[in-house]
Amino acid sequence: MSELAKNPDDAETPGTHLVDALVAAGLVERLADIKDRRVINLFLTDKGRLLGREMKKKAKENTKKILSTLTPEELSQMSAALEILRSTIGNYKDYVWLSVNPAFFIVDLEELS
Fold first, then answer.
1. What are the residues facing 28 on neighbouring strands?
2. String of b and e for 14-23 (b: at least 16 CB within 10 Å)?
3. In this structure, are residues 27 and 10 in contact, taking their beta carbons and an 8 Å threshold?
4. Is the overall model pTM greater than 0.70, yes or no?
């Protein structure tokens, strides 16, 4: 969408195509901003929220399946590494993580036992 802001005459940006596809699929809706007509807000529809919950559930199931092959020692090492990663990411809390693969969730390793 930022490409559209840079190039307002070019409505064929990848972000616009993505939003168009999400709207067409009924996952998001566009609503004009009441205070600024130049702004278009995007909101998840009920269908979009449901799909998000389903994706999160599936990602968690897949993560459990993959991690179940690790030994307790390997899980402990991974847990320690993830804590370091979590604290490092916490230092960048204002950064928006748009490119994170939804299958990569930091799970509670105790859930595996």
1. 44
2. eeeeebeebe
3. no
4. no
User: Residue 24 is encoded by which pair of tokens?
Assistant: 């067409």
E strand intervals along the chain: 28-32, 40-44
**DSSP letter (8 states) at residue 92:** T
Q: Could you tell me which residues come within 8 angstroms of residue 84 by beta carbon, excluding any fewer than 6 positions away?
A: none
pLDDT by residue (tens digit) across 22-33? 899 999 999 998
Q: Supply φ then ψ for residue 110, to 5 degrees.
A: -70, -25
- Other Cβ atoms within 10 Å of 13 Cβ, number: 16
3 state SS of 28? strand
For residues 58 and 56, what is the distance between their CA atoms, to the nearest angstrom?
5
Residue at 24: amino acid letter: A
Give residues with Cβ within 8 angstroms of 17, minimum separation 6: none
